[in-house]
Amino acid sequence: MTFNSFIFWLVFPCIFVIYWLLPDSNGGGYNSSRKLIRPRNLFLILVSYLLYANWKPAYTLILLAITLLTYFGARYIESNEEHRKTGIIFTLATLILVPLLVFKYYNFINESVWSLLSSIDLRYELHGLNWAIPVGISFYTFQALGYLFDVYYKKEKAEKSFIDYALFVSFFPQVFSGPISKAAELLPQIKEKRVFKYEQGVQGLKCLLWGMFLKLVLADRLGLYVDKVVADYAMYDGPTCVLSAIFYSLQIYGDFAGYSLMAVGVAKLLGFDLINNFNRPYFSVSITDFWRRWHISLSRWLKDYVYIPMGGSRCSKFRNYWNIFVTFLVSGIWHGANWTYIVWGIIHGVAQIFEKALGLNKKESKGVWRFVRIVVTFAIVTLAWVFFRMPTLGDAVAYVGHSFSSFGIPSVLSVTNFAIYVMAIALVLFKESREEFFPNAFRFLNDRYVKWAEYVVIFCLILLCGALDSGSFIYGSF
Q: pTM of this prediction?
């Protein structure tokens, strides 16, 4: 059940009211701090599993299995001798990754092997799977695996309360599409007493409102244009394809950043603070800077559990470049079982290697030079998104080639929709430009009455211009 569905917004007020009306004490023999939160945690687990089951009930068993494996696995690792832990962590990590590998990568591996063997005239046939991928499996698998690694590296103590840990893995605002939380951030919040705070609630509603605007008005409206062009790109001229690629960059940002903000907003209304996944990524001056601002929780996960364990930057120059390459190769594979995602990851990895070799990753820029670097970075990111969006490598290469096949004025598929595109992009650009470059400018916008006027206008724009069809989130399939 997605945040932009009417059913969720009918159900969530009930969840909110019941959650905050639940008694703080369960009447058991726990200490004072534990008595205050146990009923609410149990309620959130129930809600999380019911919302997950609303998509496909049988797949809640996968969520539960990963929770059980990592909970008992972490306790087992903590209680065993040092020399036995490597074998234990390898075995547990393999078991945890099996569902992800089977559901997400079985068909990809099967088809790749079939194509390879067919090219040398060898007969090979293994039936593919027609099962739908469990929604959010990559996110909750990585979150649980990160916790297990933290216990293994002695960064965290193994959690004793199964209820608290089960909520950590299944917490419904983030289980479908992240952000990927660390145990050190979320588990303490699960354990502590939660009291409704007015200011936190207001912040949550602001996040929800802006997240809905990014998703419904920016992303979903741009998606109408992108889908139309991509489906039959050979029939459109080059400038239209270029505009569609730019629009897709904005669409995927609005879609994913919108979801993340809604997740943060819902969590705040329940008394939790989740990591903000985005920090104005399209104002990045390099690809390295881009990954400090885009999908921050995944970037951090890859750095902590892939890049650093391989040696990070504390090694030879060429080994460091290899570590960067492998990390972004893993990022591409994580995003999906398709060669297009792998190439997308390779583009980002190679770009970062070049930046590091030239020292651009540490070079500060101001004025015109900063603007040039922002434009170049956005162009590289947009090129990579073409591979991310297209169904096959052949389509991606053909799309890029076709984009430079002619020159002229891009086609406008609908004047009304195009007006909405311009309005939505202008609002997002103004808001993020002010935050990035002029945080102290336009102070009149901080006035209380002006802010209320802004909220009303944004709400009206969502109702009037938003694509209110409960469109799925792009990252929900990951």
A: 0.89
